[in-house]
Amino acid sequence: MEIMTYFPAFLLVFARVASFFATVPLFSYRTIPNTHKIGLSFFLSWTMFLAMKKEAIPLDDTYVLLVGKEVLVGLCLGFFAYLMMAAIQIVGGLIDFQMGFAIANVIDPQTGAQSPLLGQYLYIFALLLLLALNGHHLLLDGVFYSYHFIPLHTVVPFGHEQFARFALKTFSEMFVVAFQMSAPIVGSLFLVDVALGVVARTVPQLNIFVVGMPVKVIVGFLLLMVMMTTLFIAAQHLFETMVISLRDLMGIIGGK
């Protein structure tokens, strides 16, 4: 009888966790079987439900709205976490465009979408860094502590002005961080273009289109070797920004 009393509340927890796993980085990839995702969501929801304060939620007309609210909350938390990781791919895309690699994209097996070459390369390193820094544990802690900010029975103001401003601010921060991370390499490659233009004017007999491409590729890879440590430090700060953004998002949705 007690199980039937708290079973609707458990379904709400399961809806939020499952939808969170549908969009959050690392857990939402297509290479992970759906049965594993559902099983992990179920057991994690059961563990979280046993550790949190239980509420008896009746099965009335508003229960469907609560389920929809939990799904939207989980999707928003995972999507905003993915936005910060998408900045890494934007960095690779900007560098690819300047190096001349933008003409060829690769299929990302994790998402099934086209991705720039260096963007996919840096994104894999960012995922390894996320695992090394236990960032996946922070993501799971975030969805657990989200119930302190957004209880099961609360109404979520997704159409609120503050939520729209936060979403716009997060989008802008993603592009600003991507531009800051790629600016040294892109700026250096721009100087290479200027130097090649000067050489083309001074030595007209030299076919600059044949010489310029390998020069830019070699310089780009050398700059990547030099800047890789700096990119890792910037990615670590990006993960910190992701955690802070999730906390602020939960506060805005929860009305705190």
Describe the structure.
- Helices cover 77% and strands 2% of the residues.
- With 256 residues, it is an all-alpha fold.
- The protein has a domain at 76-253.
- Strands 1-2 form a two-stranded antiparallel ribbon.
- The longest helix is centred in the C-terminal third of the chain and has 46 residues, at 208-253.
* Percentage of residues assigned to helices: over 70%
β-strand percent reads under 5%
Low-confidence stretches: none
Reading the helices and strands in chain order gives HHHEEHHHH
Which class best fits the helix and strand makeup? mainly alpha
Give the neighbour order of strands across the main sheet.
1-2
| Radius of gyration based on Cα positions | 23 Å
Let me know the number of strands.
2
Distance between the termini: 35 Å
Sum up the overall morphology in one term.
elongated
* Separate helix tally: 7
- Give the rounded overall mean pLDDT: 81
Largest sheet: 2 strands, antiparallel
